[in-house]
């Protein structure tokens, strides 16, 4: 009995294969059509997002530029202070030497 049942199931499966394949193809075509229909909206959404990001970048640019300028000014001031300190130390090196011998 189970051999007959297995054979019948196998026959049913083989006989039903074209219908299952046709259904799968039809489902895939429907999914593809849906994706194609959605593509313009996706492109428009992506473009709108990019525009928004660009506007945000432009709005943030003055602050970023100001921060960059402030940082550069701070770095320059530090460099000048270091150069002045080094020059003063070098300039006073000889007099300090002389004074240390006098004491």
Give the biggest sheet.
none
Provide the β-strand percentage band: under 5%
Shape: elongated
Q: Give the C-alpha Rg.
A: 40 Å
Q: Would you tell me the overall average pLDDT?
A: 85
Pattern of helices and strands: H
**Count the helices. How many?**
1
Helix content: over 70%
How many strand segments? Answer: 0
Helical/strand content category: mainly alpha
- First CA to last CA: what distance? 122 Å
Q: Note poorly predicted spans.
A: none
Please provide a written account of the structure.
0% of the residues are buried. The mean pLDDT is 85. The chain has one helix and no strands. With 103 residues, the protein is mainly α. The N and C termini lie far apart (122 Å). 98% of the residues lie in helices and 0% in strands.
């Amino acid at each position: 009995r189970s051999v007959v049942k297995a054979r019948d199931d196998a026959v049913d499966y083989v006989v039903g294969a074209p219908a299952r394949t046709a259904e799968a193809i039809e489902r895939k075509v429907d999914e593809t059509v849906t994706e194609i229909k959605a593509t313009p909206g996706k492109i428009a959404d992506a473009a709108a997002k990019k525009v928004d990001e660009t506007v945000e970048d432009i709005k943030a640019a003055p602050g970023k530029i100001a921060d960059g300028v402030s940082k550069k000014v701070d770095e320059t001031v530090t460099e000048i202070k270091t150069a002045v300190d080094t020059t003063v130390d070098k300039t006073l090196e000889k007099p300090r030497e002389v004074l240390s011998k006098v004491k």
